[in-house]
Amino acid sequence: MMLLIPAVAPKAPAEKERTTMVTLVDAPPPPPPPPPPPPPPPEDKPPPPVKNLSPPKPSPVPPPPEAPVVDVPEPRPNDIVTPPSPPSPPAQPSDIGASVDISSKNMNPPKYPPAAFRAGVQGEVILIVDVDANGNVTNVSVEKSSRNRDLDRAAMDAARKWKFNASTVNGQKAAGRVRVPVNFALN
C-alpha cells in the first residue's frame, strides 16, 4: 500500500476578519431637579374682635305745643256749601306685556335639525325670552324641554334672532319677559 502525502501541507482556510461596530451613545442628561416646594400658605389671621355697639339712645321728644282753643260758631243752613267734585283722574294707559313680533318670527323660523328630522323626532319647546326696551333679545332659556337637545338648541338659536314688541308700563316702553312655545312637527 502506498500512501501519498503531498509535499506541502495544504493551506488552512483564511479566517475572515470579524468587525464589530460599536456606537457610543451619550448618556441621557440627568432629569431636571424637582421644582422647589410651594411656599406655605399664609396663616389665617383671626378676625378682628367684634365690638359690641349699643344702639343709640333716642333723644327725648318734647311734647307738642297745645293748640289754642278757638270757638267756632255753629254753621247756619245757608252757610254750608258743597265742594265741587274733584275732576276724574285721566285714564291710565294699560300695561301691555312684551309680545313676539310675528313678522320677525316668520322671517327667522327655527331650522329643523337634520338628525332629528331623519330620526322623526317631534316636540314642543317652551322658551323664556328676556327682551329689552327696544325689543331686542337679551337672554333665552328653556322653560320646558322637548326632551331632545337638538330641538331645544334650534329653538333657542332662532329666538335670539327675533325682534319683539317691548312691553309698555304707564305708557313707556320697558324691558320684559316673554314665554314663547316653539313646535317642531313633521308634516
TrEMBL record:
Gene3D superfamilies assigned: 3.30.1150.10
Chief place where the protein resides: membrane
NCBIfam families reported in the protein's UniProt record: tonB_Cterm
InterPro entries: TonB-dependent_transducer, TonB/TolA_C, TonB_C
Family of this protein: Belongs to the TonB family.
Cross-referenced Pfam families: TonB_C
Protein name: Protein TonB
Function: Interacts with outer membrane receptor proteins that carry out high-affinity binding and energy dependent uptake into the periplasmic space of specific substrates. It could act to transduce energy from the cytoplasmic membrane to specific energy-requiring processes in the outer membrane, resulting in the release into the periplasm of ligands bound by these outer membrane proteins.
Record keyword Hydrolase present: no
Bilayer topology term: Single-pass membrane protein
Compositional bias per record (Pro residues), positions renumbered to this chain: 27-67, 83-92
Protein's UniProt keywords contain S-adenosyl-L-methionine: no
Gene Ontology CC annotation, any one: plasma membrane protein complex
PROSITE patterns in alphabetical order: TONB_CTD
Record GO biological process: protein transport; transmembrane transport
Chain positions covered by the region annotation Disordered: 1-107
Superkingdom in the source lineage: Bacteria
